[in-house]
Amino acid sequence: MTRLLRGHPAIDVETDPTGSIVAIAWNGRRETVEVCNRWRVEEAWWRGPIARDYFKVVGSRWLALIYLDRVEQTWHLERLYD
Amino acid sequence: MATLSPDVTAAVASLQARWGAAAPRITDGALALAPATAPSLHSVPDPTPTPATTRDDRVIHTGFAALDAILGPGGLPRSASVAIRGDGSSGRTTLVLRLAAEAQAQGSIVAWLDLSRSFDPVEAVARGIKLEWLVVITPETLDEGLAISGMLLAGRSTDMLVLDLPGGRLAATDKPARIADRLGRLAALARRSETLLVVLEPPGLAGGLASAVAESTGIRLELARRSWIRLGRDIVGQRTDALVARNRYGPPGKRATLRILYAEGGERDACLGRDDLLRDDLDEAKAPDIDERTHRDATPPSPPTAPPPRTRPGTSLRALPDRPAHPGRPAVGSGSGHRREPGRPGAGRPARDAARERPSARP
Amino acid sequence: MPLGSAHRLVPEATFIDPDPDADRAAAEAAFEALAAFSPGIAGSADPLDAAFGLFEVQVDGLEALWGAEPVLVGRLVEALGWDEIRAGIAGTRFTATVAAVLARPGAPELVAPGGEADFLAPHPSGLLTQDPDVRARLTRFGLRRIGAIADLDRTALVARFGEEGARIHARARGEELEPFRPRRAPERLVLGLPIEPAAEDLEPLRFVLHRLAGALTGQLAARGLAAARARLHLDLDLAFALAGTQGEVDVEQRFPEPTADAEAIERLLFARLERTPPPAAVARLVLELDGTVPAAGQQLPLFTPQAARGARLEWQLARLALTFGEDRVRRVEVTDPEAPLPETRWAWRPVISGDRGVAP
After folding, report:
1. Chain A contacts of C340, Cβ < 8 Å?
2. Hey, which end of chain A has fewer CB within 10 Å, N or C?
3. Which of C85, C110, C134 is where one domain is finished?
4. Cα-flanking dihedrals φ and ψ of residue C86, to 5°?
5. Top-confidence residue, C268 or C21
6. Which domain holds residue C249?
7. pLDDT band at C29, cuts 50/70/90?
């Protein structure tokens, strides 16, 4: 089951020179991660466009779902698998 | 042997004339409310948790048979207070959701104190929870949440209360001594009202609060993820070791392994029923770490080297392209773990409970 | 249909905010118009009711007055004066409803007497029930048409689906289940008492509230009615009040369900007063019970154990919500499980007010 973090807290994401995600930082903690799946969601939402790149990432402690808000160019944590 | 009055006998006869096999029956002078046999429409099993007529209603089943087997009375007693500890992605939340679904199937109304602000109703439904018999409490502070919970229990209209505690520091207004006292009173009230109290302990729980939880609960389960389950490169589940670290109702120290699959909807879920497609990603560098004495969220160990993605002979590892299609959307169904998109007719195949425990791979 | 789904289907559409008061007034006007044709009118004027927009008219024996059924339907539609009305006539309420749903505006669907089962047979089994769980299970069992349900043995359906199984079986076979309950004009019950001397504290208000609730619910019970709403009117004594304090306070409170339970009403309203105490001493308290409907009997919870405590739970949740805040104790509902964004798939549902679908 996943926990859906309401508010989708902002996170910091580190990428390697090829652009692959290698670590995320949230709540003052940094964790090295590996991407195990990714997909894109695009919606012409009537209030405004929605475009997100989702990444399922796994670290030593958590399996999580993060996304890049391509409109705002911000990273967010959406879910934690538990 | 007790004899029923003529009025009751006549009433039962009237019900039987109307409802047939589904009506209450008189057995050995007592009134049995559960139907003896259910004429089947088809052979397709119902994926929702259904109470077996032979189950003891004084215990609530966890949804994982192996865990029920090591708990002593075959599940969690209705008046028990249970603490479930586990590090990130240990499976605590899945376990409690399955437990809540089982409780509802046994006639319970469940209240969920969502202090961590992370309850997902769509996921809950996928695990078999009926939202009409669920109350979600979202207080500002733990103290307020305990006050609301206490009033709820005093009203005796709920049968299971889940305290989903937040990690990190307490709010400034949540004084540890007061919280500890309220928690103890809540546990006592739960016992008296035969309400199952489940406390979800996050990693890094404030010390004073952790002690209060330990003192207030008669059963403590420690969960530790042992391995991921992968479908190709994607992680679609996990194996979790559960230790009964403390048990007022049976012998402590027993362990079981839980197999949890994340059903996220869509075509991919069909693969979750194919064991030959799944593999356990056992990380040898990270042995299950269940410390019975202390379970603190210490500095995380160095992340293990991620194993290279393996491919099966004859298959190709497809680079995931940028595509608008979502590989799977959480679908809502009445199942306890097997989710399918609403509106689509079922294929008639047996549904699977994705959160079903499987026998441990260890001898 | 959820807003997100609607927008996906018609991206160029404009979405208008609902206006419940206007909707209610329009419904009441429609009932009045229909009442000129038949004494048997049923339906709901409550925009939040799932059956809002459905008007039932008993037409038995009215041919002599208004002509044959097609003519009668035409007169009813003309009396309503709306553009897009779909009408159905059948021997049972359920069949007539299905016929109306399937009809096209201007072309009423008439089901021949005794032909209800044949009419219903080819249509989807999902029409038989509002319960999404039952619908899903019927589909899984391959029972996609109403005719397939009608062909089954009733006991098998009861064993699988309980009381709902008996209901869908009867509906499928064209049997009338629900008696026609004509709508009555809403009744308002109001009673007020002076408080001398004016009450600064809440306890004296509770005593007065207890008497008012007891008296009014007694009238409700005598008529076999239950109330869905209450209005409290407080006249304040401003002798020692702060400057600018209003002389009156009005409180409106919906109930979790229609009731004639004096104690439940008293406790709920008192919780409301505790949450928002009056700004000055109260010199007079007036209680009005509104939204009266026929009191429903309690169903035996043979197959849904929680249902026996459902009403008590709702009242307790309502009090907790009033005491701690409506955003503290809530229900949740899945609104659009197919929505691509997780935050749009579900919504909070308050335990008290009629507002639905508050986004997370």
Report:
1. 41, 43, 50
2. N
3. C85
4. -110, 135
5. C268
6. 189-294
7. confident
CB pairs under 8 A between A and C: 20
In a domain, B236, yes or no: yes
The complex scores an ipTM of 0.91
pLDDT tens figures, C31-58: 878 876 776 788 888 888 888 889 998 8
Total domains, chain C: 3
Domain presence at residue C177: no
pLDDT of C219-243, one tens digit each? 888 778 899 999 999 999 998 888 8
* CB atoms C306 and B152 under 8 Å: no
**B78, part of any domain:** yes
Contact status of B167 with chain C (Cβ, < 8 Å): no
Q: Is C153 on the interface with B (CB under 8 A)?
A: yes
Count of domains for chain B: 1
Greater confidence (B286 vs C207) lies with C207
**Per-domain residue ranges of chain A:** 2-81
Domain boundary among the residues C85, C114, C134 is at C85
What's the pLDDT at C15? Answer: 80
Q: Cα–Cα distances in Å, from C288 out to C193, C226, C260, C323?
A: 12, 13, 13, 22
B240–chain A Cβ distance below 8 A for any pair:
no
Contacts of B260 (CB under 8 A, 6+ apart): B91, B94, B237, B238, B239, B240, B354, B355
Q: What is the CATH number of the domain that holds B189?
A: 3.40.50.300
CB contact under 8 A, B148 and C139: no
Q: What is the pLDDT of residues B194-246, one digit of tens each?
A: 999 999 998 878 777 888 898 899 999 999 999 999 988 899 999 999 999 99
- Say whether residue A70 is in contact with chain C using an 8 A CB cutoff: no
Confidence band, pLDDT 50/70/90 cuts, at residue B290: very low
How far is C186 from chain A, CA to nearest CA, in Å? 40
Same domain for C11 and C68: yes
B201 touches chain A (CB under 8 A): no
Same domain, C214 and C273: yes
Residue C181 lies in a domain: no
Given an 8 Å threshold on Cβ–Cβ distance, is B355 in contact with A59? no
Does the beta-carbon distance from C334 to B121 stay under 8 Å? yes
Would you state the structure tokens that stand for residue B351, as one six-digit string? 């549904």
Query: Does residue C200 sit in the same domain as residue C280?
Result: yes
Q: Verify that C285 and C356 share a domain, yes or no.
A: no
pLDDT greater than 80 at residue C206: yes
Residue to mutate among B85, B89, B93, B264, with most A CBs inside 10 A, is: B89
Residues of chain A found within 8 Å of residue B127, distances taken between Cβ atoms = 1
In terms of residue numbers, what domain contains B123? 59-282
C290, C338: one domain? no
Q: How far is C325 from chain B (nearest CA, A)?
A: 9
Tell me the per-residue pLDDT of B4-42, one tens digit each, with 9 for 90 and over.
566 666 666 655 555 455 455 555 545 544 443 433 333
